[in-house]
Design a protein that fits this description.
The chain has one helix and eight strands, in the order H-E-E-E-E-E-E-E-E. The protein is of the alpha+beta class. The strands form two sheets. Strands 3, 4, 6, 7 and 8 form a five-stranded antiparallel sheet that branches. Strand 3 and strand 4 form a beta hairpin. The chain is elongated, with a radius of gyration of 28 Å.
C-alpha cells in the first residue's frame, strides 16, 4: 500500500492543476480578446489620423451676438469631429469644446463647417489674436492662426 500513495498524490495534483486551468482559461481568453480589440481600435485610429488635415479658413468675432465663428475645412481624407477651440482673446486664453460636427454628423473630407462658440467677453474693443482648432477624434492634428482681429 505504500506504493499507491505517490500515485494517488500525483493524480490528485494533476486533477487540481487541470481544474485551475479550466477555471482560468475562459477569463484569460476573454482578457486576450478584449486587449486585442483595444489595440486594433487604437491602431485603426492612428492610421486614419495619418491622412487627416484641417485648415482654418476664416475667423469672425461678433460683439452683437457674442460669438466667435470659425470656418474650418477638412483638407484630409478622414472624417473629423468633436472640435475644440483655443482662442486668445484680450491676451487671455479661452477654451471651448462644444458645438460643431460630431461623430454622428462629422466634417467629411473636402467639406467646410462653421464652428460657433459663445464669447461673453466679445465686445466692441475685444481683440482676438490667436485661434487653434483641434478635432477630438484626431487630437494630434490641429490648425492655428494668428488672426489679430477686433470684434465688430
Amino acid at each position: 500500500m505504500k506504493g499507491l500513495s505517490p500515485i494517488i498524490a500525483t493524480v490528485m495534483l494533476i486533477a487540481a492543476t487541470l481544474s485551475i486551468i479550466a477555471i482560468l482559461a475562459p477569463w484569460l481568453a476573454s482578457l486576450t480578446k478584449k486587449q486585442t480589440g483595444n489595440i486594433e481600435s487604437a491602431s485603426t485610429k492612428l492610421v486614419d489620423c495619418v491622412t487627416a488635415n484641417l485648415d482654418i479658413v476664416g475667423v469672425i468675432c461678433s460683439n452683437s451676438s457674442h460669438q466667435l465663428q470659425i470656418a474650418v475645412s477638412n483638407t484630409g481624407q478622414t472624417d473629423l469631429y468633436d472640435f475644440s477651440v483655443l482662442a486668445v482673446i484680450n491676451n487671455t486664453y479661452y477654451q471651448n469644446n462644444t458645438g460643431g460636427p460630431n461623430s454622428t454628423y462629422p466634417l467629411n473630407p473636402g467639406r467646410q463647417a462653421i464652428l460657433i462658440y459663445g464669447c461673453d467677453s466679445c465686445t466692441t474693443n475685444t481683440k482676438v489674436s490667436t485661434v487653434r482648432v483641434t478635432p477630438g477624434n484626431c487630437s494630434q492634428i490641429y490648425d492655428e492662426n494668428n488672426v489679430e482681429i477686433n470684434c465688430a
